[in-house]
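Input record (one chain):
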Amino acid sequence: SSSAPLPEEDCMKLNPSFVGIAVRSLLAIDLWASKRLGVCAGEDSAWGSARPLMKVIEVSGHGIPWLLGTFCGLCQSDSSAAREVLLNLLFALLLDLVLVAVVKGLVKRRRPTHNKMDMFVTISVDKYSFPSGHATRAALVCRFVLRHLVLAVPLRVLVVLWALIVSVSRVMLGRHNMTDVLFGLLLGYASYSVVEYCWLSPLSAPALFALW
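The corresponding structure, as predicted from the sequence alone:
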């Protein structure tokens, strides 16, 4: 045939690589499974009656309550050790917000189609789904609390359960796909390592501690 050859990008579409097929298949499975697990996505869903409880859990993992609570505790604390821990928790929460916003802005993955946009206090990047900010925050706070607070074993178990329930609730409410939550947990876990490496103390940041 004397017809002109297809452009390279068209050839790639007609002959996708094994990696491309695998990625598309995994994404399709992710979308299908996430929709099946969105049992609280609406009042008429399978577990619609549990939706109010899921929304309370949603608020418990939101950034604003955590930021306000940490800031208030920092202002009222009269212990230098407690101020150091709270200041680093505040730094961790701010770092989490920045990292999630950057990744969401770069990836720009839309939220699941079955999601109802009735989330508690959203900003511009919250229209995007990847990664789950609640999951990153849950993993980060969980690791932080277990490392820096002396808690009895039952309380430590409750902290871990809270992080898991917050993460699972994101899929059940239809807010996120499973991959959003899984990546969010990994990002939050890794973010704590950054906080630990950049730990703020009166020696490393004397000017900052002088403010308090």
